[in-house]
Amino acid sequence: MYKTLKEVTKTAEELNMTIGAFNTHNLEMLPEMIRGAKEEGSPIIIQTSIDTAKYIGYKVMVAVVKEIATDEMVDVALHLDHARDFDEIKAAIDAGYSSVMYDGSHLPFKENIVKTKAVVEYAHAHGVSVEGELGTIGGTEEGISVSEEDKVYTRPEDAVEFVKETKVDALAIAIGTNHGQFKSKTEVNIPLLKEIHRVVSIPLVIHGGTGVKEEDYSELINNGIRKFNVGTELLVNWTKEAKDTFGNTEINKSLRHNVIPANMKVKEIVKHKIRLFMNLDSPLKK
Ligand SMILES: [Zn+2]
Fold first, then answer.
1. CB within 5 A of ion ligand 1: which residues?
2. CA 81 – ligand 1 centroid, Å
3. Which of 74, 79, 75, 49 is nearest to 62 (CA)?
4. How far is the CA of 250 from the centre of ligand 1 (A)?
5. Cα(180) to centroid of ligand 1, in Å?
6. Domains of the chain in sequence order
7. Which of 65, 70, 135, 265 is buried most deeply by CB count within 10 Å?
8. What H or E segment, with its residue span, contains residue 31?
């Protein structure tokens, strides 16, 4: 069924697992991503950047995700990733996205609170969840880049105040991850995560998940990470596979021959990540 971020992360909290939030870049890869979640028996969060939402069309995106979620009987939330523009957030909510991220992490703390609060008021009035962000995640996403020196880790005391004032449903935290990292792996700051988790009760979100070592997943999940973003790994592998097939397929053959292998590659990664995200070796949280 079509769900909100709040609903799927509640399930994750109860079962001590995390929900994979996977970025789609086109409609081609989307159905297999959702089918992958269904085959693993997990909810899934499909997310798009504003540019992808505009490319596909907000309403088209909503219609397709709702239809597949209902048809395949799998819980899917549709989330707008890293939005800084109120008009775009409103467009997503009005079109039927079930979740949005307002990223005010580049703003002074107080301004981030004020603007996030405004988004939360509009979103909650429409039954839509909101993810906020505190601190800076490194790397580049959709052209906005953060250098190593400008990275600021999330301060636990700020997180407490931010959550209390804004009433966000989930909080993206900066604990050392980087957007777009796929050639190397990062050292996540687990002690800082533990400290934030101790003082903040809402679901926490990891960005730049491609750069996180798989052996660290369990510790992240056991310490409150309930939404785990993976974008780059899907993008890189879809493109690699598609380059291969486009290069080797006769030009008069159906395009299916070029894109199906790439879609299946994405599905395989989604399924692999979800199996780890379900944290099957860890006990339930009580
Ligand atoms: Zn991000």
1. 207
2. 7
3. 79
4. 38
5. 9
6. 2-277 (3.20.20.70)
7. 65
8. helix 30-40
